[in-house]
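Is this the right way to post structure tokens for a design question? Let me know if I should format differently. Anyway, here goes:
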């Protein structure tokens, strides 16, 4: 749990799906579907302007009966984006997901976007850690029994 996001990003890759702040919701959803991701980052040039996720489609677009083709992304994105640094640990990020009730965190280093960590990335990493630990305990016990 003390592993840093740098390690997770090395394993998953640093690809980040972004859209311009000038697009509509329909275009944003097309991008999310094309890459099979639940969130896209909204960029104003090189600047992070917001985040738009599946939850926003549900609540702020469908729930508010807005037309995706006519709604600018800036109207329904979350502009106040929580970010983390690459030196943050898995435990710290899990705490943010729980406390802030979100499932995506852009990773920023010196003002530059270097990746995105989702709750799915973290739970995959934790599940793998548990598998490895269980296997090493099994081997330890089996070794102890055979001596
Ligand atoms: P999610 O659970 O990630 O689909 O997001 C739930 C809500 O939190 C949505 O309104 C998102 O726009 C918002 N949200 C998701 N990630 C972040 C983030 N890193 N910073 C701020 N808001 C976020």
């Amino acid at each position: 749990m003390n592993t840093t996001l740098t390690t997770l990003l090395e394993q998953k890759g640093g690809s980040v799906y972004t859209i311009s702040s000038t697009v509509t919701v329909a275009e944003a959803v097309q991008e999310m579907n094309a890459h099979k991701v639940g969130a896209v980052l909204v960029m104003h040039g090189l600047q992070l302007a917001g985040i738009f996720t599946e939850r926003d489609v549900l609540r702020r677009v469908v729930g508010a009966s807005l037309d995706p083709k006519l709604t600018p992304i800036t109207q329904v994105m979350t502009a106040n984006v929580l970010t983390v640094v690459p030196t943050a640990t898995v435990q710290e990020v899990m705490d943010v997901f729980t406390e802030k009730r979100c499932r995506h965190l852009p990773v920023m280093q010196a003002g530059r976007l270097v990746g995105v960590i989702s709750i799915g990335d973290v739970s995959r990493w934790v599940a793998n850690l548990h598998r490895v630990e269980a296997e090493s305990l099994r081997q330890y016990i089996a070794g102890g029994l055979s001596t």
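Format looks fine. Someone answered above. Worth noting: The chain has one domain: 5-141. Residues 83 and 106 are 5 Å apart (CA to CA).
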